[in-house]
Amino acid sequence: MSDLVDELRAIVGQEACLSRPEELFVYECDGLTLDAATPSAVVLPETTSQVVDVVKACRRHDTPFVPRGAGTGLSGGAHAKSNAVVIETSRMKRIIEIDLENRIARVQPGLVNLQLSEAVSHHGLYYAPDPSSQQVCTIGGNVAENSGGPHTLKYGATTDHVLSLEIVMPDGEVLVLGHNSGYGPGYDLVGVVTGSEGTLGIVTEVTVKLLEVPEGIETMLAIFPDVVSACRAVLDIIGSGMVPAALEIIDRRTIQVVEDSVYRAGLPRTAGAVLLAELDGARCALGDQLARMQQFCRDAGASEVRVAKDADERDLFWKARKGSFGAMGRLAPDLYVHDAVVPRAQLPGILEQVNEIGERYGLVLANVFHAGDGNLHPIISFDKRNAEELDRVMKAGREILEACLAVGGVLTGEHGVGTEKREFMSLLFSDADLDAMMKLRNCFNPEGCCNPGKMLPITRACVESNPAARGALLELIS
Amino acid sequence: MTAAAIERLRNSVESEILEVIEERPGIQVDGREINTVLSPRDPESLSRVLEQLSEEQIPVLIRGGGTRMGLGNRPDEVEVLLSTRSLSGVRRYEPDDGVVEVSGGTPLAEVREAVLDKGWVLPIDAGGSLATVGGAIASAAYGPRCLGFGPVRRNVLGLEVVSASGTLTRCGGRVVKNVTGYDLAKIYTGSLGTLGVISGAWLRLQPKPRAIEVRVAEFSESDQALAMGIVASRRSSARACVLLSPEVARRVGLEHSLAASFLLLVEFAGEESECRHDASWLESEMGATRPSQSSGEEALAMFDAVRESLVAGPEVASVRVRIAALGTKLAACMRPLIKASARMTVDPGLGLVHAELSAESSAAAIDAFIEVARAAAEAASGTLVFESVPSELKHKFDVFGDGLGPELALMRRLKEEFDPKRLLNPGRFVGRI
To answer: A99 lies in a domain?
Structure first.
């Protein structure tokens, strides 16, 4: 290993190669803190050619490598086992080109999401995907996870905004995929690399669309006696043909925690649920829609509807929503955030089930979710040092996922599979479905050296029908 | 492939899905004579058929509504055609969720009709009265409403695909937001049936707009038309926006003066106040040359006609190309095409130039046009697809252009993994994959 570290130092420079235990400590996990392992080294390249050299060096030494952005991922996508090298993109943060006329930008993967919007805001443009972590998460990480955010409802996820990519393949070859017009010839390789969780190669440049900042924005908060009536309002709003920019629900427990924290927004602590709804577009069309939306909320049982008077109040409303994960940190040392998606119409029923599961396992469970998309985020607070509690957390998590799948849902809407939901993939997909995914991976990453152990269940192929061997193997790889 | 293999296939499939074509000329695809048509009735039967074809190593052409059989390179030697026309029907419509599940061979028209009564619109805009969902997905079909609908890839939530060896697989799901596993639906979309046969799809719907306003304006200068087209396509309610050259305009039933070089046609859809606002914005921009107006159902028909004109057959256009380029490069792309008197449909918002030559064109004129189209794409650093070309010219060049670099090798690997025996639409795709 020390030979490899020397080579890596020669490529990226002494200060951009970390290998001392105290330096590596922060890289032992990402936003999923459940399983942790320290990589052998971390490199911070600045250029595509450095990434190529790092990849080739790792290949010569038969060492797997793991791309990493800001490490805010919530499914373990950036976890590296002890023998792996982490390639962190934080120094590849240049905006290479902004083409205002064509409304596109070409950037390095380590650029922080929000900084792209800030760089073009004075031209009336912005980059639409807005994960809650947008102040720190990177564009490259967003591409890897196909990140969404509250405004996915109207504007789509990362995949709808990426035009072309430069990628360092797991054998070190550099390819440019797609075309900046959005109409490249051949298979849509950009479409499959986006959301591939860093398992198909290392993205070193991204060309994205920029959108015009909407002329008008209206944001409102509606206070409901319970979460089911808030869901009813969401279904009525969408069923009426409106396409709001965002429809977010915060449940009672979340409201209480947020109001106890620095993110407080003056929400009534007795409320059963709060719906945060946003409309954007031409100013002339917003008034009518806002009135209809308020009516739907009242009809569904809202006791109070507040419309943000100005940008400050709007920010305050959003602070409560975007800060809710942070606020939740007050409850316990560890948080487990789920990410299942169900068909919208199933929301009221599934929330009852989720809460019932939480209660049955005696867990502190809160719900903050993208209601418009049917994307749930049950958050369980716990202390992972308590083995018995951790066991309950895992069991409850599995039951929640199974309940969501039973009503036509999927495992993850925006956080990715990573290591977290890898072994649950066979609950949703057949062996044939997973084989097709494996075939795709084999085209890009046949030896599996690029971000190994992610997304596809490891145990499936080798120990199909032997639970004991499966357990032993899981032990071995974790 | 041997006659004996075909004979064995004919004897083993259920007779009701088999059609033997004996008369000549029967069905021809780019000069390949089809002698057997298979029309499986459900995914399981499709699966059995593909398994048998794979065992016998018999290659097939795949056909949905047959609208776009002209697209693609000349296929390798093929005698069997697999039709999805009997794999048809809306399986499940969920108006509360705004999603619909359909069989792959369902005509788009049938889905459009089925979802309308509960206030939804199918956001897949592909021409051809028989065009199917599977065909529109496999060809990543374009229609002018893609400006507002988004491309096909955005509206495909999940797919059911039967592999080359006959295995039924699924990817994606029926929810509107999903990152569970690789997004395989993306590579099937636009793969021209070379990686698997689409037997079913979950599609995202869009709410039916409360109002529709269409405006038509005439320009004598193409540059002015283009500049206005780009700005108009960025209005928040613009759902479709095209520039039509006079011949195309007449074909879709629009009148114009002798001085016209292009007609700008814009469809505003959404909230009534917003449509009115955007339409009057366009009117004020046009000043004295007042655009003609149309609303509601009558207005809808105008862009339906534009969509259909883009799939008109060889009796209308001998050759048709599509060039994709950035907005700022469109003028450079259009210039040589205008000079060559091409008939054009330009989508300034999406950066697409469709250009065609009349059906009566001579061989020399077609050859010259092909060179002009290449030059136009190059001038705009764009990508080029020959959407329809006389079969006899197809051996001369790749209809998907030769713009791919080393990533073509990766695409070949993909084909090798998904269809190692090269049985599905062999030779048709980019690089003759």
So the answer is: yes
Is residue A419 one of the residues assigned to a domain? no
Contact between chains at A186 and B411 (C-beta distance less than 8 A)? yes
Task: Please name the residues between 46 and 85 in chain A that touch chain B, using a CB distance below 8 Å.
Answer: none
Say if B147 falls within a structural domain: yes
For residue A433, give its domain range.
429-477
Q: How many contacts does A have with B, using Cβ atoms within 8 A?
A: 240
In this complex, is the C-beta atom of A436 within 8 Å of any C-beta atom belonging to chain B? yes
Based on the fold, state whether residues A301 and A237 are members of the same structural domain: yes
In a domain, A52, yes or no: yes
**Same-domain status, B324 and B381:** yes
Q: What confidence score (pLDDT) does residue A477 get? A: 41
Chain B positions in Cβ-Cβ contact with residue A187 (cut-off 8 Å): 187, 190-191, 195, 411, 414, 430
Distance of alpha carbon B383 from the chain centroid: 16
SS3 for A322? helix
Residues in chain A: 478
Last-in-domain residue among A301, A326, A351 = A326
CB contact under 8 A, B184 and A374: no
Q: In this structure, which amino acid lies at residue A177?
A: L
Assign A442 to helix, strand or coil: helix
Residue from the list B186, B401, B410 with its beta carbon closest to the beta carbon of A191 = B186
From A19's Cα to the closest Cα of chain B, the distance in A is 32
Domain membership of residue A31 (yes or no) is: yes
Domain assignment present for residue B29? The answer is no
Q: Give average pLDDT by consecutive 10-residue segment, chain B, 433 residues.
A: 84 90 87 95 97 96 95 96 98 94 98 95 96 98 98 98 98 97 98 98 96 96 97 97 97 92 97 95 88 88 96 93 98 97 97 96 96 97 96 95 93 98 98 97
- Picking from A157, A182, A184, the nearest residue to B177 by CB comes out as A157
The answer to whether the CB atoms of A417 and B179 lie below 8 A apart is yes
Of A342, A412, A433, the CB nearest to B179: A412
Range A296-303 average pLDDT: 98
The total domain count for chain B is 3
**Residue numbers of B between 36 and 55 with CB closer than 8 Å to A:** none
- Asked if A338 has any chain B CB less than 8 Å from its own CB, the reply is no
Q: Give CA–CA dist B100/B120, Å, rounded.
A: 10
**Domain span at B293:** 211-309
Full 3-state SS string of A164-216: EEEEECCCCCEEEEECCCCCCCCCCHHHHHCCCCCCCCEEEEEEEECEECCCE
Query: For position A460, what pLDDT does the model report?
Result: 52
B154 touching chain A per CB within 8 A? yes
Residue A338, CA distances (Å) to A32, A367, A404, A440 in order:
11, 10, 11, 27
CATH number at A20 reads 3.30.43.10
**Together in a domain, B286 and B197:** no
